[in-house]
Amino acid sequence: MASALPRFVTIQSSFSEKTYLRYVHEDGELHRYLQATGEEIVSPYAKFEIERAKNENVFVHIRCCYNNKYWVAASSRSPYFILAAADEPNEDQSQWSCTLFEPIRVGDDTFQFRHVQLGRFLTVSFLSAAKRACLRANSTSVTSVGLHVFRVDDWELLLILPKHIALKGDNDLYLSARLIQGYQYLQFASSDHGDPTVGNEVFITKDGSIRIKNNHFGKFWRRSPNWIWADSDDTTTDNSDTLFSPVKVGGNVIALRNLGNANFCKRLTTEGKTSCLNAAVNTISLEARLVVEELVISRRIDFVNFRLSDARIYGQNIITMVTKSATNDTQESNTATLSLSRKETKSSTWNASVSLKLGVTTTITTGVPLIAKGEIEISTEFSSEYQWGNTVTTETEVESQYTITVPPMSKVTVSLLATQGTCDVPFSYTQRDTLMSGEQVVYNKDDGVYTGINSFNFFYETIQENL
After folding, report:
1. Which residues form the Agglutinin domain (predicted)?
2. Pairing between strand 174-180 and 296-306?
3. Radius of gyration over alpha carbons of the chain, in Å?
4. Which of 294, 304, 330, 399 has its CA 20 to 30 A from that of 159?
5. Quick check: 465 and 414 in contact, CB under 8 A?
6. How far is CA 349 from CA 189, 205, 294, 311, 380, in A?
7. Which of 91-95, 130-134, 208-212 has the lowest mean pLDDT?
8. DSSP string across 423-466
9. 454 and 414 in contact (C-beta within 8 Å)?
10. Fold annotation for 2-156
């Protein structure tokens, strides 16, 4: 049944159809718990990854995308509450720290989850007010209804658009605000993305659908009857004619489905209107494909705050950095000093688990987390232009001296070894955007994930051979 689950998911408990399972990131007693109290689907705390088990196809590991840690029992003394706290997956079913779960399909998009080591099904807890709605492995037998049934939605069907956008049609012209026959239409008529009539502001609702406000008219998009007008002052989500669901076609090409009639919006010429937006088709035709451009001239990322308490270290391996030998073919012991030259490689990637960045030139100023002595420290500052999600790799030449005593008629080989590991560190940050209008807007975000690889815990190993 593991194959029935998408890779990235959001999870809702039958405890409430309006809340999502979320990682508790706040400091306190419930830190790292999983709780069915999330109000927004587009949240870094509500996104989880499903990983198939290596040894059992029917089992999965579930990883929280905020801190990249796996679901696991709280402890050997208190095994029933489930936390996102394991640095590595564990398939040993004899250990309380086993991270295997068995998904059991109940309906089209509903599942039960059984903790394999405990043999108990997951549910939300009502045992105490302090841990109300927290995830717990409770029952050994269940029915097909109740608090142990979870709705699972495919995160990748959610398309999270940037805040400020322009849309280009298949005629290579931008969608722009136009007053036609006294109505506020949207027409594919402008050739300049700097035109003040082409800008739109995106508002994401709690369930992931969007509302779009045209900057020129200062009004929200609305279907009437099937034409899309920018004429609504309604700031609620009560009118489905003002709600849209974006669908990714490929790259930065999308389609927009109006939730009022469930049709995709396309460029349409009819009834005396030319190339205006209309919710007209139930398939993504050529005219329904829209190129998204982010209307941001430049972006600066600063005030990066790493949450070291939510970091994880994994993938640790011993590697050989450099090896050298000294030979003594005399009958007396000799002392030799070896020069050991090595290359230390470090890689760093800053990314966002929720926000979409469409190639905007970005300058980032931040510290760099490094693994040292099995813990994570914040090292030197990095400040440069950066493409969000790219990996920055640096190499440093380091030379060290190592003195050894070589016995008579023998060869001594010295190897410098180290532990190489990977760390994931969540971070919050301030994003400062300069828009096409010259306006500067500031956002405080908490969806950053840093991934770094470096070597640490250096040590020498010597091997003696007789000649």
Report:
1. 3-154, 159-294
2. unpaired
3. 28
4. 304
5. no
6. 40, 29, 22, 14, 15
7. 130-134
8. EEEEEEEEEEEEETTS-EEEEEEEEEEEEEEEEEEEEEEEEEEE
9. no
10. Trefoil (Acidic Fibroblast Growth Factor, subunit A) (2.80.10)
Please identify which residue in the block is written with the tokens 């905007």.
360
Q: What is the residue type of 228? A: I
Contacts of 436 (CB under 8 A, 6+ apart): 164, 193, 194, 199, 295, 296, 297
Q: Model confidence over 132-145: pLDDT tens digits?
A: 899 999 887 776 56
* CA nearest neighbour of 25 among 35, 39, 12: 35
* Those residues with Cβ within 8 angstroms of residue 225's Cβ, 6 or more apart along the chain or in another chain: none
Measured in degrees and rounded to the nearest 5, phi and psi for residue 185 equal -85, 165
C-alpha span between 383 and 380 (Å, rounded): 10
d(CA 74, CA 131): 13
Burial grade of 3 (CB within 10 A; 0-12, 13-18, 19 or more):
exposed
Q: Give, as one character, the DSSP assignment of residue 97.
A: T
Cα gap 410→217, rounded to integer Å: 86
Residue type, 405: T
Distance in angstroms (rounded) separating the CA atoms of residues 71 and 189: 51
CATH 2.80.10.50 domain locations along the chain: 2-156, 164-294
H-state helical runs in 97-245? none
Distance CA 111, CA 107 (A): 7
**What is the dotted CATH code of the domain comprising 298-466?**
2.170.15.10
d(CA 108, CA 121): 19
State how far the Cα of 13 lies from the Cα of 8, in Å rounded to an integer.
17
Least confident residue range of 126-135, 256-265, 366-375: 126-135
Class for the domain spanning 164-294: mainly beta
Phi-psi category of 172—alpha, beta or left, where left has phi over 0 and alpha has psi -120 to 50? left
Distance CA 390, CA 368 (A): 15
What is the rounded distance in angstroms from the CA atom of residue 293 to the CA atom of residue 298? 13
Closest by Cα among 335, 340, 334, 326 to 411:
326
φ/ψ of residue 309, rounded to 5: -70, -15
Q: What is the DSSP letter of 263?
A: P
Q: Evaluate whether 373 touches 306 at the Cβ level (below 8 Å).
A: no
Identify whether the C-beta of residue 9 lies closer than 8 Å to the C-beta of residue 50: yes
